[in-house]
Amino acid sequence: xxxxxxxxxxxxxTISLKSDRSRGIPPVFSSEPKHSQTRRIEDLKxxxxxxxxxxxxxTISLKSDRSRGIPPVFSSEPKHSQTSDQNTSSMQQNQDTLKEFESKAMALVKEALRAHTKxxxxxxxxxxxxxxxEDVLDDQPMEIDEESKEAALKIALHILRSMNEDEHAHTLExxxxxxxxxxQKKLRSFLKxxxxxISEVTTQQWPVPLKTIYTxxxxxxxxxxxxxxxxxxxxxxxAFNRRKSSExxxxxxxxxxxLPNEQGKPIRTVLTKGxxxxxxxxxxxxxxxxxxxxxxxxxxxxxxSLPFRELNLIKHERRxxxxxxxxFSPGLEESLIxxxxxxxxxxxxxxxxxxxxxxxxxxxxxxxxPKQSASVDELLTNLIVGNLLPxxxxxxxxxxxxxxxxxxxxxxxxTEIRGFNNLQKEEYFNKKIGDETLAxxxxxxxxxxxxxxxxxxxxxxxxxxxxxxxxxxxxAAGGKMPKTLTQMYIYFLSHQTTRKQVKYSEDQxxxxxxxxxxxxxxxxxxxxxxxxxxxxxxxxxxxECGIDVKEASVYSGVCTQVFREECCMQHKVFCFVHxxxxxxxxxxxxxxxxxxxxxxxxIEEPKQMTQSKPVFDLxxxxxxxxxxxxxxxxxxxxxFLLGLSLESSQDLLRGLKIQVETSNTQSHWETxxxxxxxxxxxxxxxxxxxxxxxxxxxNDHSLVEEIQTHLDSDRDLVMDDRSAAKWxxxxxxxxxxxxxxxxxxxxxxxRTKTGLLKLLPAIKASMSAKLDDCNLxxxxxxxxxxxxxxxxxxxxxxxxxxxxxxxxGIEHLCIGxxxxxxxxxxxxLNRCGLTQKGCEKLASVLSCPTSHLRELDLSDNNIEDSGxxxxxxxxxxxxxxxxxxxxxxxxxxxxxxxxxAWAVKSNPSHLSELDLxxxxxxxxxxxxxxxxxxxxxxxLTKLRVDHNSEHWFKPGLRRYACELRMDPNTAHKLxxxxxxxQKVTHGVEEQPYP
Length: 994
What we know:
CATH superfamily of the largest domain: P-loop containing nucleotide triphosphate hydrolases
Shape: globular
Number of strands: 23
Number of domains: 5
Structural class: alpha/beta
Strand order of the largest sheet: 14-15-16-17-18-19-20-21
Number of helices: 35
Strand content: 5-15%
């Protein structure tokens, strides 16, 4: 800003925040002359340019001319000569009030600004020497509250920046807020710019804001069970069958907050698991963006993002933690922050599965000083263990298989991203496509294909589907829609080629040979890195595959939706957009190499074949390798490889200028028969389920359609235990149906242990299982216990009545019932051969703090008073939340009532229904229970004690026996009644009955 004029050259300052005594000539903010009619407006302005009191003015004076004795005029109308004395008095009073208000306001602002002037004068002493002398003459400083100081600071900063004095504004701001605020402000700005746009590539030339497309994901409280190393397509199917209601959900912004039952538990490290493409990185991006915009987690003062893919690039270097943070957080080194231990810090470590550091928790040296130099691996392990910055919080994301890299000892909370449920799928498509009508058509097409709908659990697959189907549905003709995964990915590749042709002009288009070379080079990289288990590739990985780094950069430029290049730490990092895209290109490469080049890459020593062989040989080798894999890492690869052999797929590939040989019909049917043969073998459920997906890719639905027809007819489907293929088809249909069955009734299919074992995957995914009267024995309980202990189980209702489980079976079952993963609410064990021994184990279940059991039916078991006594120890425990207990026909007497009465009084808050009918309680027993209910103020609303007599205490069938008498009113007149009407004799004369 230019200076208004000054006669006090050396003693003046352009940045003075002092009172008007510091200047000789007042500042001029307006070049226009004042008009007499505008005087009343100028009176209200905070600064006046015209003043006769030169020595009392200031460059940034906040005084008005009212301080010079001129009253303000609020009315533009001339005063009337007849104005009453009362109005004159009122106006004078208002003027006095305003003058007093102005005086105090000016004094307050001057005092507040005085502090800021001192800050600047400390740095520019030569400019403020004269001001200091005048300060001595000032009155005693006023007492100012924080809000006034804050307001004055904003005024000062606004003026300084309008004067282009940014350095002085920064000095003032730093002095007031401190170094933390200044760096925090810079950090937020940096993180916002880095995370506010989604890294999604489209035909548009502008970036996509994360907020416009972000769909809130499904985060649940996880578990610390054995790490799931299965291929992620299996985990997708498992997650698809889970129900949202059975899991504890957590908001991303609350991941460090304890749940209601965890109050007081400190949460330092959170590990979030999720399959590839499920949205881990996008969720991290949204979390950081919300923090940078001051929306959530404002208790965190500093947030540092340390992606593992970037840490890999400096894995051989040594540095201190502070030096490491200097690389990842611009401005930290220039700031005055040297000790992080004084602040609340969060480290976000995204992509543990991409980590290529050893993470040697046992062998690494201990490091406690953030300024001590160490290897990057040592810094990470010490940070996770808590030797470095023990008060800091850590959020680590990973795929399931890599979760074991961090010992459970150092993880306070395990969470898992489940991906999209059905409503979230629709929300995503509506946001991504932007046209509600078009989005509905896309969703309808996806729902019509089981395998596609299941895969849409993964956000990345929704993205692929929205690109392919959105474009196809938008066309007037529509065309034939993809129904298999292979078709979807070929169309996706076709879309990529179309984009490339739009991007390059005619003379720049890659010819067909170059197009073929691009996809084969990417396919080679995909296959070789898939064999190694790598999802991201560095320059050395490309060189090992024989791909030039510059060449890879070209590929990433023309195949932006398939293959991406990122710049991290001045190095290039490459990756496919998703694991499934990598697997598809790998399958395409293997297929072309076999059918065109004559090389089978699935054998140990691939070599050129002297003569062509049927594609069935390749398929057989692939099926065998997939079945031998313990974690199913070739499951999706196998589906793609088989799907590529269809003539319809090859027509699409030819449209992409990819060389393929015409498929052989004989090989096609041989492959189908071989897969059906394997379905009949004894494979784990997840393996034969994938085989059915393979049949779907080969366009063979015979087995599935047969089962579906029976189910649609609503008739019981009696299964042959020897037909493994039909059982597999039944399970496949039940698990992949869009309308998953809420209840599985084993009796509809089989009443055998074999049937139970075959149907286990469907039972585990259902809410309710009716297994009553199915000839199950004690050893079946072990299998059921394993289901109840699994984190993937959905069971909340289980009926095992009328099975001879005995006490040994109940003992096995209770192991599962006490698991933290068990969600069972209702358990029916009528007529299961249970005695007092089994009651002891059930009492432990009732006492378990994690138990969800609310209804227990033990009717018609010979548990007697001793069993009730044991059961009551659990029932009376404060951890017991049981609401309904049925004990009819259990041989209970008054003695058992004593135990139950104690339990009801000890824990009166939950039990609302108690059935003691058909027992020999006696009047005293009933009285004991009734009194206990009154004394304990129980919640019990329903008590059954009917049929209370010694008669029901008889063992076996005798309890049901009764003395029958003939009623003379209904007897035939030729019947003669005797022996108290219990004996009937046929007579010849009519009797005098009514």
